[in-house]
Specification:
By secondary structure, the chain is of the alpha/beta class. It contains nine helices and twelve strands. Helix 2 packs parallel to helix 3. The longest helix has 14 residues.
Length: about 290
């Protein structure tokens, strides 16, 4: 029964986590490959990747993205690699989608609405980074069409209920292949905070036969993945979202966060999916 299998994704770095926050944050292709390998060995079926330059700055350079992708696949041939179509702050639509079309990963993130996107100190409320994350209806539509035409399955990122409603409108065009795969994102500054009742409402509003996973920023990482696992969904952890384990200690790497997700699955009588089991569940073509 597929529902007994839980897909664990490791989001290896994101665009806003740096080595000064956790020294295991990968920048180079070799570092990404090593973090991916350790996460896979710990139980991850998929890794989510924002490629970086040697200085740690997120990049849209296709050569660097391909080198990072290739390094991971050479180290872990079976692992699913999910690339980001957000890339980083201030990228144009062309810069965001061209690397997906060129590299053709099995899966890529698809963001669902324009929104405030910020880095805010949770203790003081000080605004550290602040910009508008642009995702117009036309951009979403174009990204879906290009992903689907190139055999790339969209992972639909839902930051609030409006994002899900946007996708429900665009679905009427018949541009999404089935099954559809959603990721509920919690506690980004500008998006929704994690609330169990909101999680339940989102699950109940999904199109029939959809898959869902979840991720939460900071301390909300573990509460949100536990609820997802309890409700039959999947789990994302990793240094993109959170740099610490539940007791507050610095995570030794993405693999340690994956180990915690495996424990959650085991407590609920579920088993981590292998990459091939994850492909079957999510309807992926093998890369």
């Amino acid at each position: 029964m597929a529902n007994n299998k839980v897909i664990i994704t490791a989001a290896l770095s994101g665009s806003g986590t740096y080595k000064q926050q956790n020294p295991m944050t990968p920048y180079t292709p070799a570092e990404f490959a090593q973090e991916a390998y350790k996460a896979h060995q710990a139980g991850a079926a998929m890794v989510h990747v924002h490629a970086r330059g040697d200085d740690g700055v997120p990049t849209h350079d296709i050569r660097r993205i391909r080198a990072t992708y290739d390094a991971i696949k050479q180290k872990c041939p079976d692992l699913i690699v999910n690339l980001s179509s957000a890339v980083g702050m201030g990228k144009t639509p062309e810069q965001r989608i061209s690397q997906i079309v060129e590299v053709k990963p099995e899966m890529a993130s698809l963001n669902t609405n324009s929104m405030n996107f910020a880095g805010i100190d949770r203790k003081t409320g000080e605004i550290l980074v602040d910009y508008i994350f642009d995702n117009s209806f036309t951009m979403i539509q174009d990204f879906v069409k290009k992903m689907e035409a190139n055999g790339v399955k969209p992972e639909i990122e839902v930051y609030d209920f409006g994002g899900l409603d946007n996708i429900m409108l665009l679905m009427k065009q018949g541009i999404f292949s089935k099954p559809m795969n959603f990721n509920f994102v919690w506690s980004v500054a500008g998006g929704q905070r994690f609330r169990p009742e909101s999680f339940v409402a989102l699950v109940h509003a999904l199109p029939p036969a959809s898959n869902f996973t979840t991720c939460g920023v900071g301390r909300d990482e573990f509460a949100s993945i536990m609820q997802s696992c309890l409700m039959g969904g999947h789990m994302r952890v990793g240094l993109e979202d959170n740099v610490r384990v539940p007791n507050g200690d610095m995570a030794k790497g993405n693999y340690e966060l994956v180990e915690w997700a495996v424990r959650v699955a085991q407590m609920m009588g579920r088993e981590p999916a292998t990459p091939d089991e994850a492909r079957e569940i999510m309807g992926l073509r093998r890369g």
